[in-house]
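Example A, followed by Example B.
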Amino acid sequence: MTLPLILFYVLIAVVCIQIIYYLSFLFVFGLKPVETQLKKQIPISVIICAKNEAKNLKKNLPFIIGQAYSNFEIVLVNDSSFDDTLEVMEEYSALNSNIKIVDVKASEAFWGNKKYALTLGIKASKHDFLVFTDADCVPNSKHWLAHLSEKFSNEKSIVLGYGAYAKKKFSPLNKLIRFETVMTALQYFSYAQLGLTYMGVGRNLAYRKELFFNNSGFNNHMSIKSGDDDLFINEVANASNTALCFTKESFTVSEPKSSYRSWILQKRRHISTASFYKLKHKLLLGLFYITQFLFWSLTPALLFLGFKWQWVVALISLRGITQWLSFGFSAKKLNETDLIVFAPILEVFLIITQLNIFVTNLIFKPKHWK
């Protein structure tokens, strides 16, 4: 058996695995209808942990305060900032009785650890239902809290939302960042729908305080600087306690990084936590990324070797159509339709970026959340 033939058989296996993944994503999330049934508004505590975010708080906090929601408080956690973050918080607190400030002083034992600051914010909150977002996030509507809260029930104690990034014209980097965000959301929404919840994003996440304390908070991974969102959810989520919220009104929107280097640093922190996921999640995610990499490695190799290009093109087309349908329906649902036509190119650049981050993280470990 020749080497090209062996590579071709491997490619067939890779394409079959990729198609299974994308068809699963398509049917459990891409084609899932958006459901909205606003209920009685339960008491909510919105928790925002900020470190040197004075500018973003001035810009975005009014949109949190202005939520069309009858019963909520805002817990602002100042994580040892050295800019005017605390002063901005105090200005808004003086004008709004539902704002509470938690001023976290620098601690040698917990220096640079967002989880410590968040824990103090959670302890200070007065309601059992907690909503988390970041200082650089703005709700997509005045009904953000209403849409998230209606997903809570006696069975559902976790709500996963979508944290989008603002669109920038004529910016390839912006498209790459948003493509990665959609691909991540496509996976964590799909896996959650299949009863395999493995993460959430801190830009738009909600869970019950009771769940937090019953799990001893972040104690099991307090020494890991990142993972206040994904590692916690990976630990406490099960097949029945997680709900999804992906109505456009429930999105949050953040300003994306403006340079490739700063985005890479951000992604290095995020990806560094994946090695601490449950084994079943690491296997599922690892197989998806490995087969992605193999697909984009084997197809040009076989074409270069001149191996029955008609068969190779047929496999490329089959996988491409399946991926396009899965990504396309999901991108439409997440209001990212401008990315659909660029999906194959963006996927190649994302795979190269992720490989670079993986290798870099093996050598140098990210140390701080900011």
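Example B, a separate protein, is given below in the same form.
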Amino acid sequence: MDKNSQYLFIDFEFTMPEYKGFPKGFFPEIIEVGLVFVKNQEIIDRFSSYVQPTHFTKLTERCKSFLHIEQNQVNEGITLEQLVQRLGMYKHSTIITWGNMDMKVLRQCCQKNKVPFPFAGKEIDLSMEYKRFFGDQNQTGLWKAVQEYGKEGTGKHHCALDDAMTTLNIFKLVEKDKRYLQKPEPTTIGDRIDFSKVLNKFAL
């Protein structure tokens, strides 16, 4: 993680249709946000909140069961406009997510609700960085990737803030490995000694 840099680690949870059939015009909407803001290698801010969906406001049984989020929790959450306003505080940060769905859904929600997209900085899909770095053929899930490092995820899977923290932790692990691989190979004794001079000395 570079010094004098700022990163925003984000995880969203979305609405889900029932297993059988999509409602007409259905699109996923953000119902929970977790973010961790890191500046100069220090965690400066953490934020977590439920978010009110605007188009398909009633959560499906599948969504509630899978995410362990109840209807009353999203009903009492912040609005999309308030979420975007909060995200705008980190407008020029490097945005880091696990997978590309978070930014896709945020863009779509902003478009559907005629709300300006809040970010102008670089966006990094850490799952693709991980895939390229380790040469995995398949895209690895966030918590599986952490376990491959011999560690555990932070808190509870599919809790947005815990997933954002887990994304930060694996980002630091990958960056550490990158630095390790970039270190120059140690010099050999042959690099340190000019054997031609040694042989010439003994040839005299």
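On Example B: Strands lie at 6-14, 30-39, 42-50, 94-97, 123-125.
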